[in-house]
Write a structure and sequence with these properties.
- Helix 1 packs across helix 3.
- The protein is an all-alpha fold.
- The chain is 79% helix and 0% strand.
- It has three helices and no strands.
- It is elongated and about 40 Å long.
Length: 71
């Protein structure tokens, strides 16, 4: 995948999982602003480490693990 294809794919996955990521983040933080910040941090870290995701089918568990680790 080229960089533009990767960006597009990543963006689509983030859109797909935005609500569940926020929900989990809110469960952890119990604060709307902190939950939003946590999701933003996780997405940033995920994008910077996208090359480490070898199996694209495991994106969901990968991004949730990143979010949990950011917490």
């Amino acid at each position: 995948m080229g960089e533009e294809e990767t960006k597009s794919w990543f963006s689509e996955r983030i859109d797909e999982y935005a609500d569940p990521l926020y929900g989990y983040s809110y469960q952890l933080t119990r604060n709307k602003a902190d939950a939003e910040d946590l999701v933003a941090d996780a997405v940033t870290k995920a994008w910077s480490g996208i090359d480490s995701l070898k199996d694209k089918r495991k994106f969901r568990s990968w991004i949730f693990r990143i979010l949990h680790n950011c917490y």
